[in-house]
Amino acid sequence: MSTQQFGIVAKKECNFHDWYTQVILRGELLDYYDIRGCFIMRPASMFIWSQIRSMFESHIQKMGVQECYFPMLVSKKNLELEKNHLENFNPELAWITKCGEKDLEEPVAIRPTSETIIYPAFSKWLGSYRELPLKLNQWCSVLRWEVKSTLPFIRGREFLWQEGHTAYHKKNDAENEAMEILNLYSKVYEELLAVPVVKGKKSKKETFGGAEYTLSVEAFISGTGKGVQAATSHHLGQNFSKMFNISVDDEGDRQDRMFVYQNCWGLTTRSIGIAIMIHSDNRGFVCPPRVSQIQAVVVLCGIKANTTQEEKTRLNNYALDVLEKIKKSNIRVHFDDRDNISPGYKFNHWELRGVPLRIEIGFKDMEKGEACIVRRDNLSKMQYKVANIVDSLQESIDTMHKDMFSKALQEREKRTKIATDFETMLGHLNDKNIVLAPWCSSAQCEDEIGERTTVRENGEVTLMGAKSLCIPFEAAVDYKGMCCISCSSDAQCCALFGRSY
Amino acid sequence: MSTQQFGIVAKKECNFHDWYTQVILRGELLDYYDIRGCFIMRPASMFIWSQIRSMFESHIQKMGVQECYFPMLVSKKNLELEKNHLENFNPELAWITKCGEKDLEEPVAIRPTSETIIYPAFSKWLGSYRELPLKLNQWCSVLRWEVKSTLPFIRGREFLWQEGHTAYHKKNDAENEAMEILNLYSKVYEELLAVPVVKGKKSKKETFGGAEYTLSVEAFISGTGKGVQAATSHHLGQNFSKMFNISVDDEGDRQDRMFVYQNCWGLTTRSIGIAIMIHSDNRGFVCPPRVSQIQAVVVLCGIKANTTQEEKTRLNNYALDVLEKIKKSNIRVHFDDRDNISPGYKFNHWELRGVPLRIEIGFKDMEKGEACIVRRDNLSKMQYKVANIVDSLQESIDTMHKDMFSKALQEREKRTKIATDFETMLGHLNDKNIVLAPWCSSAQCEDEIGERTTVRENGEVTLMGAKSLCIPFEAAVDYKGMCCISCSSDAQCCALFGRSY
Questions:
Q1: Stretch (H or E) spanning A214
Q2: In angstroms, what separates the C-alpha of A290 from chain B's closest C-alpha?
Q3: Per the CB < 8 Å rule, is A97 touching B100?
Q4: CB spacing of B67 vs A47 below 8 angstroms
Q5: What phi and psi values does residue A74 have, to the nearest 5 degrees?
Q6: Is residue A6 less than 8 Å (CB to CB) from chain B?
Q7: Which residue of B has its CA nearest to A142?
Q8: From the candidates A3, A35, A248, which should be mutated to test the interface with B, based on the most B CB atoms within 10 A?
Q9: Class of domain A289-405
Q10: The domain at B11-279 falls in which architecture?
Q11: Inter-chain touch B95–A99, beta carbons under 8 Å
């Protein structure tokens, strides 16, 4: 007997980790695999990814970004060209050393990201500033042999993502694009997944290896009080273009070649895990309604042992009419017409799987030309006329989306504290909050904050240290003239600190 | 200076291999990479793949197939479960043995295909016949460390594909699906790529390891006289379900578990190579018009040194009006408004890249409210009224598609010969034909045919042996009562033989 036949038994508020595992396994979103840190994306989660992909792809196409595909293998030689970059990824590289029965002369690595694969081609292709900007994106999987604990969707050894790589003639244009992409990531989270995010810049320590700076959107998981990096957009400046010799003939009379300005940016299937963690409850998954594979499920109610075949047929035909109406719209509807299980079992089945709307149809509904719509997020029930069922469903989807977003936003705001001294910050962090504080922004100070917020019992780490999630663009604290929250030197910014995934 | 600035210098009819390489490199469809057998898919070819993906995906969705994603890594233990299957893929497996600085306890392989990754999950998930059919598909890349010579698109170490994996309660339903998918593959080739294919069944020797039988579509490359396998749909029977213990509670009173009936089916980026080889000419790529990233390119003509700025502006505005009209339709149009190069250079540029239609706009066209449309495949020119330009372009696209298909079909028919004795067959093969012949269909006889058709000079193979491409569903030869083309035992079928990729 398979696990999916049982509901969620762990509580979100008591044992978050077990609860999360049950939600994704029993909600049939994901399954484990016999290689640790690798996970199977089942259709329900893959559908969410395909919705994200389709929205993101249509936007970047309008920006002139073109789809491409580069090999998954990378040679040692190219990996070694950018030292900071190599340092970041080296410990996680998976190496192919043998093919069939033969040892390879030179081992090759699987891509952990594709800068070192793509930029030699940029170098080869680009001749003149007239060929800029060059904007490419690919959808693929990458492999990072994480030694830290893996967590489905959130941290896997292999995961799906998109990686965009662009090259510009002018630094300013590149920087504008990096910001435009960040806004697009925010849109994906807020408008598709109903997840509020904080936009900001990463600290020096958290900047991508080889980048000039890194922008990110950060989400908050209230169940654990942790922040989570939701997507990143890196402005590389000329760091990579100098290492990979990506230069063009410059405009005008200048004889010199110029090195291009570059960005890269990525969004991963972690986004799905974030949405699951934020929205789901003790009944199981609550799917953001715009991305759900099934948005509404029809269930017949009130059929009893003494219901005649004729009555059953009438009710069934009524439901089929409702179904036909809905199918003519863009709403994704499913009729659960299984005759070997009860309505109650069906309710549990679809609640566990997060289907946003349930359409209950009983004899009384039929007599009145109505249907009862039950929302997954708050279990509220409303009667609607079948004549306007499509509008009612569309409205329910939009309202549910807004309500889910507002709830998550309120929760985050409630749990975002301000501190100006270290002890206050530590208290807030230990109460599962994230904290805005004035900061000197140095890497050394960030290390120290990590150390000072680590909780140990008998020498074992029981609560990991905090770090800066980002330096938000919209900061609540005016840091000017204030002291750093930890080292007491002059504050350079207001940072958002938190424990994190 | 980059290679794409030069046209094609090799001739398709003289040196097919060099010609093909120049078409794909200089047409900016693909680039080489510093690991042999791995290729970069540039936007122009990736666009074709995205069109194929979108058509195929929408069809299989209607069939109830759901998208999923399984890990790219596979353990030795699972690989070894199906012996025939392992035997096929073992010599080509790439093994990861080291991660970061550490050796793995147990090496893992990169998927060459995913049966051994997916079927353990089928075994775990399926409980009752009521959960059937289960229909999954994934889009991903696979890795096969080919030792044979690699060829861009046609035979790469890594390539993109879709792989469908389905499980059924009834053998008959599974077999119908295998055929439905074969018809869909045929549709992709014929309706998108303008490539005619032969549908048939593979011989025993050519059947997929572990399958009960393999269906395929086969294309013909007239430039080399070779056949090429274009896509395959395998009915696995219960072979894999028995090895992986994929069983369900059967319907009715029967107490026994039953093993499910399975199919798997795949289409790869080889399809793009096939289309390129068939349609392109000595000017470069000829893109099938329905899948081209740019379907029509606008080029201004007749601007001379003494043309006034006012005249230039008028012509440019006229072109922009035409462009706006077209952009309101679904036709993908591009305005080449570069002012630093001549119309002639632009013509060559877009011909090399295979753009199906060129819209030339000069002063005379403007005065008459017309534009001149030039077809890439036959360079024919036609004047059209701008008022109906969208209809004219759509018609040109459809006509060009049909003409390209017909030309390829006629070529294949002309080069498909019938033989009833071996010497005749050999003559036809050596004249770059494919041959229909009565056949006993045994694996041993197929080996012998391969041997007897291999051409050697001084012990070196100069022309590889022929094999059966497929046993076509629609056979031209009534084989009953005839002798096998090679071994003279009773013929069991009419097979299509050819040298092949």
A1: strand A213-221
A2: 18
A3: no
A4: yes
A5: -140, 140
A6: no
A7: B72
A8: A35
A9: alpha beta
A10: 2-Layer Sandwich (3.30)
A11: yes
Q: Return the residue matching tokens 């760091």.
A: A239
> Please, what is the end-to-end C-alpha distance for chain B in angstroms?
33
**B140 touches B266 (CB < 8 A):** no
> Would you write out chain A's pLDDT as a tens digit for each of its 501 residues?
344 457 899 999 999 999 999 999 999 999 999 999 999 999 999 999 999 999 999 999 999 999 999 999 999 888 988 788 888 888 999 999 999 889 999 999 999 999 999 999 999 999 999 999 999 999 999 999 987 789 999 999 999 999 999 999 999 999 999 999 999 999 999 999 999 999 999 999 999 999 999 999 999 999 999 999 999 999 999 999 999 999 999 988 667 789 999 999 999 999 999 999 999 999 999 999 999 999 999 999 999 999 999 999 999 999 999 999 999 999 999 999 998 899 999 999 999 999 999 999 999 999 999 999 999 999 999 999 999 999 999 999 999 999 999 999 999 999 999 999 999 999 999 999 999 999 999 999 999 999 999 999 998 999 999 999 999 999 777 899 999 999 989 999 999 999 999
- Locate the domains of chain B by residue range: 11-279, 289-412, 416-498
Contact A66 B50 (CB under 8 A): no
Verify whether the Cβ–Cβ distance A69 to B141 is below 8 Å. Answer: yes
CATH of B416-498, one of 3.30.110.30, 3.40.30.10, 2.40.30.10, 2.60.200.30: 3.30.110.30
Asked if B35's CB is within 8 angstroms of A100's CB, the reply is: no
Distance CA A453, CA B172 (A): 64
Size of interface A-B (CB pairs under 8 A): 156
Contacting residues for B24 by C-beta, under 8 A, at least 6 apart: B30, B45, B152, B153, B273, B276, B285
Given CATH 3.30.930.10, say whether it is the number of domain A3-279. Answer: yes
| B100 touches A at CB < 8 Å | yes
B120 close contact with A: CB closer than 8 A: yes
The pTM score is 0.96
CATH number, span B289-412: 3.40.50.800
Q: For residue A190, what is the DSSP state?
A: I
Q: How far apart are CA B109 and CA B79, in angstroms?
A: 9
User: B58 CB near a chain A CB, below 8 Å?
Assistant: no
> What ipTM was assigned to the predicted interfaces of this complex?
0.96
Chain A residues closer than 8 Å to B91 by CB: 100-101
How many angstroms separate the CA atoms of B403 and B411, rounded?
Answer: 12
B95 in contact with chain A, both atoms CB, cutoff 8 A: yes
